[in-house]
Amino acid sequence: MSEEAPRTSIRVEIAGEWYTLRADADEEYTRRCAALVDERMSAVSEQAGVTAKNAAILAALSLSDELLRQQSRVEDRLRALTARIEAELEGLD
User: Fold this and answer.
1) What is the DSSP string of the chain?
2) pLDDT digits (tens, 9 = 90+) for 10-24
3) Which of 2, 11, 22, 91 is the least crowded, having the fewest Cβ atoms under 10 Å away?
């Protein structure tokens, strides 16, 4: 049976609210994730009339957009590298 890393509890502040998170990741990584969410929510909250709920949704959309764009770049690069490898392998035949 494989041993799982212990889940750690960590308190983080996001948009002025404190949250206790239980995470498999190490504490520093979890704090970095929380800080990124806090930064995005703060940036969105600077707009007049944005509620906390809307700020959270807009921050999530911003982070999702960034993630999907990065995934697309990685997939494009992987396709290009795969094509190069296949071309090199064909040249060996």
Assistant:
1) -PPPPPPEEEEEEETTEEEEEEESS-HHHHHHHHHHHHHHHHHHHTSTT--HHHHHHHHHHHHHHHHHHHHHHHHHHHHHHHHHHHHHHHHH-
2) 999 999 999 999 999
3) 2
